Amino acid sequence: MLKTIAALLLLVLSLGLSGCASGVSGLKSYVDTTDGYEFLYPNGWLPVKVSDGPDVVFHDMIERSENVSVVISDVPDGKSLADLGTPGEVGYQLQKNAIAPTNSP
């Protein structure tokens, strides 16, 4: 009797936890094995073919101004990735210097 209850409990837990481990809904995965990066992008976004510049670009098929792109740049001579800062610091500088503020032309 105790073994039956334990087996039933284990079955219920495994089914419950497998539902929690499912992938992120509403997102698709993009993997670039050549350059060694991957990211998730929203369902309904389309790849854009570019000949020069970004490595990859995706945009929303309804709101075309919403997009994501990956630009790969070399680290300047005499510098290392650590010299550029932590990922948070680099993201902050990018936001400050390269990303347009909300409602900008």
Automatic annotation (TrEMBL):
SUPFAM superfamilies, A to Z: Mog1p/PsbP-like
GO MF, one annotated term: calcium ion binding
Entry's Gene Ontology BP terms: photosynthesis
Top-level taxon in the UniProt lineage: Bacteria
PsbP C-terminal domain span: 25-103
Phosphoprotein keyword on record: no
Keywords: Signal
Single GO cellular component term: extrinsic component of membrane
A family per Pfam: PsbP
Signal peptide: 1-23
NCBIfam families (alphabetical): PSII_PsbP
UniProt-recorded name of the protein: Photosystem II oxygen evolving complex protein PsbP
Gene source species: uncultured Coleofasciculus sp
